[in-house]
Structure formats: C-alpha cells, structure tokens
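Module 6 notes. Inverse folding takes a fixed backbone as the condition and produces residue identities as the prediction. Think of it as a translation problem where the source language is geometry and the target language is the twenty amino acids. Below is one complete input and output pair. Work through it position by position during the lab.
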C-alpha cells in the first residue's frame, strides 16, 4: 500500500536473513540494486474490494506509513481502528515525524489507546 497509485522504489534489506524491503534506504546501502513495484492507495484497494468501511487497518509498511497518513483524509473509506508500526528508528525518520503523524490521526478523529512496550506499535480507534 502506498499513498497513491503507481510505482514505488524499494531498497533491499542489509542482512541476508531479513526480508523487509523498504522505500527508505535505512542503512546507506551503497551500490545496491533497488526494485520497483506497483503500489495502490487505500482508496483504490477498498474500491476494488467493494469495501466502504474497514474495521481494522493494520499497517507495517516499512516507513511508507507517514505518507499514507498524510493522505488518509482523501481515501474515502471509513476506518474504525488503525494499528500502525511506526518506523522512527529508521535513518531519515525522526520521532517528531511520528508525533506529527499521531497529531494528524487525532485531527481525523482517531484516539491513541495503546503503545507497545517496544514503542513502535501504536493502536488508534475512531472516536
């Protein structure tokens, strides 16, 4: 999932044992081969599936969650609960970016009700 329909460039993981490709170059991988893959917006996905309401949206999209949240208002789908893994531990993404995303979700009527012990996973419900 992306903030809009199109293609997104993904960086490979730095360790062979990892499978997490990311739109963020987390480790300054020099001379790595990236891949491009199609992505769809939440609006497109929900329209294709015929969903007007999403009970629970779970996002673990390796740093792309910030752009998705920035465009959430335009997605034309009702969401009751959002579970997000924020990636403020990645190079180039700050804790302030996460705070700003939380403020954006609050302005859209979502209330934070849980943060995991690791402080990466956040749970919001529509109020």
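Target side of the pair, the amino acids:
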């Amino acid at each position: 999932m992306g903030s809009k329909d199109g293609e997104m460039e993904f960086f490979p993981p730095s360790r062979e044992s990892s499978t997490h490709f990311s739109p963020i170059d987390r480790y300054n991988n020099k001379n790595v081969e990236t891949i491009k893959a199609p992505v769809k917006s939440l609006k497109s996905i929900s329209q294709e599936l015929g969903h007007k309401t999403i009970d629970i949206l779970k996002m673990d999209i390796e740093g792309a969650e910030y752009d998705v949240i920035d465009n959430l208002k335009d997605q034309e789908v009702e969401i009751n609960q959002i579970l997000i893994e924020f990636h403020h531990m990645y190079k180039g993404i700050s804790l302030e970016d996460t705070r700003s995303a939380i403020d954006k979700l609050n302005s859209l009527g979502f209330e934070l009700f849980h943060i995991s012990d690791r402080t990466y996973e956040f749970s919001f419900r529509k109020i």
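Reference fact for the lab report: The chain has one domain: 6-126.
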